[in-house]
Write a structure and sequence with these properties.
This protein is α/β, with parallel strands linked by helices and 464 residues long. It has helices spanning 9-17, 23-41, 56-68, 85-96, 126-137, 183-186, 198-201, 245-257, 301-308, 339-348, 356-361, 363-373, 409-422, 427-443, 454-461, and strands at residues 2-5, 47-52, 73-78, 100-102, 110-114, 141-145, 166-170, 173-174, 188-192, 207-209, 236-240, 262-266, 278-280, 289-292, 313-315, 333-335, 378-381, 386-390, 393-397. The protein has a 12-stranded mixed β-sheet, sandwiched between helices. It has a 7-stranded parallel β-sheet with strand order 4-3-2-5-6-7-9. Helix 8 links the parallel strand 11 and strand 12 (262-266). Helix 2 (23-41) crosses helix 3, helix 8 (245-257) packs across helix 13 (409-422) and helix 8 runs parallel beside helix 15 (454-461).
Amino acid sequence: MKKVFYEVNSLDKKSYTKYFLSEDILMEHASLSIFNYINKNFKKNSTVLIACGSGNNGADGLALARLLQEKYSVKIFQINKAKSSMAKLQEQRCKALKLDFVSEVYEADIIVDCIFGSGLNRKIDEKTISLIENLNSFSSFKIACDIPSGIDIDGKIESVAFKSNITFTMGALKLALFSDIAKDYVGKIKIVNLGFDSKKYEDDTDIFLLEKSDLVLPKREDKTSQKSTNKGSFGHTNIVCGEKEGAGVLAALAASSFGSGLVTVVSNQKIALPYHIMQSSTISKNCTAIAFGMGLGEFKKEHIDILKLNIPKVLDADIFYEKEILKYLDENVVLTPHPKEFVSLLALSNIANIDIKTLQENRFFYVKEFCKKYPKTTLLLKGANVIISQNEKIYINTLGKARLSKGGSGDVLSGLVASLLAQGYEALNATICGSLAHTLASNRVKKSSYALKPQDIIKMVEKL
């Protein structure tokens, strides 16, 4: 996993004071990384338009223009006069080298956005809005320097943002890049080395970006192992089936496919199940994890007894509309709400009475607020980017795609997490690995994105 930071100004200052690297040196490395990418991926004499602001993000663009000058047809558009000392210096260098400054933007082969950097904390004016909209209308390959202009420090977009194919973020990952709305604008994200190892540049953080390599699969002992095991050695997952039984069946199939030695669906109604899935009217005596809430429908008094059990649990869906849930939020509980359900949970817990739009614009804030109140609970908030949190730690899974927006996919996720809990994973690790398996398996399905079914995810989980 990679470290993520809310702001990096403090990291830049550390570079100056502790390692004696100048602002100029950091800027040269920033621009050089974009130059190397263009040099590797685009032909000589390709046209490049660099849109520059008046601050240090604009200065990065001016430094890039200087590097590109001999091999590419480079034009510089400045939306405002250079204001920062580095922007003035880079402008002076470009003019001394007789680079071309233009008064209008045009459709170049490559457009580089260097208007704002990572610290945007104000509304942008009509002139800049018009410029960004104009740049977005071109079919050029688009590169953003640090953060696409229009995305503020909290990952919000007030009116418009530059829509890039790739974003070169300077020094370290910024939290603003991982808001749900930013996902459609940042494109591929590449971290730029600023002249020394990133481990020296970075400090401690409580926010992390998950990677494929963070998935720890529940592999069993090799066949040649002498260790004696049986089906009970790998956990017994119980799936509580509600009014919509399909949700419970999907969760059960997912749990079985992800290593749970035994899986039982708990229901008073007879359900047609595959032969390897058992059914009971009560929680099994040797149960090691419970998934509860998927397709639940009406909450009944007998469900309280299930919540009271001191067994690791995944709680999902309809349970987030019941105040009873608040009594049982501890270290053995994983919550997997979608935004509407989380809004309900925030209201029930007296943290906030907000609408879905407000939540989506402030996802990280409200996740932090909830986990501050319930630090032992593990929370997974579904969305374009999945947020997983426990206590003060936040983990972001950006690997999911729109194809997961299909009924039943969340039930599969609950089954995967429950299966890992049943096999002895700690709650946080079970949630991280279950989420990664869910997204990675969905990405491996070879069919049209609109045609993905929950069953397809389960089949691919078996092949991870």
